[in-house]
Every structure is written in structure tokens, then in C-alpha cells.
Specification:
Helices cover 75% and strands 6% of the residues. It has six helices and two strands; from the N terminus they run αββααααα. The relative contact order is 0.14.
């Protein structure tokens, strides 16, 4: 992948949007005395970067959003590199599944991509990292995290689908 000035600018914008959605508009719900459930929409721009610009761009956006976001506002927690890996995978997985196929996506393709990404990163890996960090049981944290994903999954799917299509229409109009 070539990182042109336009691509770098778009990735910087998506990184900034992710940071704002995660660190400013996100909120944490404590479970069993641990801040185990964060509701935010910061994953959407990372997924979009992977879908629109490729898996490498998605990984760069995810890592940058996590590291810069942590430096700006840590939510009072310690740095854990597992979350940076998760952020990278949040951009890589949609990039691998939908990049180059985003010319005319169907809503179910986007929904399936968001579901797979969210199950691997948001549900499994992030729950594992919280278990390692705080010593809480994996299956104690899992039900609330699954419930939160049932709420966010349709929203993620709709936004990624609509923004992805709008961006592709914009690109086609410029050609």
C-alpha cells in the first residue's frame, strides 16, 4: 500500500475521530468493582480505515488511536499493550474482509464483518486483557460485554455501511 498525502490525511482524521469518540464521548460501566465495560464508538473509524484504505492502514490507525488516546486521557488506568494489539486488529480484520470489495457492499457483508471483528477483538481479546489486568474471571465479565455488543453491533453496522458507501460515491464522483 502506498501512503499518499491524501491517505495519510484521511487516516489522521479517522484517528482523531476515534480518539474523540473513545476518550471524550465514551463511558465506563464498572462490573464487580472493575471498570470492565466501556461503551464508545471509537472502533467505527478504525474499521472504516481498514475497509477504505486496507488492512495496513487500519492497523496504523488503530495503533495510533490507542497510543495517542492513552497519552491524552488514560481513563485512570495503566497502559496495557494487549489493547494496542486489539486496536490494530480492529483495523486489520475489516481490511482483510472488505478492502477491495467495498465498491458495492451489501449491508449483510458489512454486518458480518463488524460481527466477526467485534467478537474477536471487543468480546474475546478485550475480555481476556481485562481478566489478565484485574484478575476477574473471564466468564464473569463476558455476559455484560456480550450484552453491550448486542446494542452496539447494529449501530456499528449501519454507520460503517453508510459512511463506506458515501465515501465510495465521493471517490467515484471524482474519477
Amino acid at each position: 500500500m502506498r501512503f499518499t498525502t491524501r491517505t495519510a490525511t484521511n487516516l489522521g482524521l479517522l484517528t482523531a475521530i476515534s480518539i474523540v469518540l473513545t476518550r471524550v464521548f465514551g463511558f465506563i460501566i464498572p462490573i464487580a468493582g472493575v471498570g470492565a465495560l466501556r461503551i464508545s464508538f471509537g472502533e467505527i473509524p478504525i474499521m472504516l480505515s481498514g475497509i477504505l484504505f486496507g488492512p495496513v492502514a487500519g492497523a496504523v490507525t488503530g495503533v495510533a488511536a490507542d497510543l495517542i488516546g492513552y497519552a491524552i486521557n488514560s481513563h485512570g488506568g495503566a497502559f496495557f499493550p494487549g489493547f494496542t494489539l486489539t486496536a490494530a486488529l480492529t483495523g486489520i480484520i475489516p481490511g482483510l474482509l472488505l478492502f477491495r470489495r467495498m465498491k458495492d457492499p451489501q449491508w449483510w457483508q458489512v454486518g458480518l464483518t463488524v460481527l466477526v471483528t467485534d467478537l474477536i477483538t471487543g468480546v474475546f481479546l478485550n475480555t481476556l486483557w481485562l481478566t489478565i489486568m484485574f484478575g476477574q474471571g473471564f466468564f464473569i465479565l463476558l455476559p455484560a460485554r456480550l450484552l453491550a455488543r448486542l446494542v452496539t453491533l447494529p449501530i456499528y453496522t449501519l454507520v460503517v455501511f453508510l459512511v463506506g458507501r458515501a465515501y465510495q460515491s465521493y471517490i467515484r464522483g471524482r474519477e
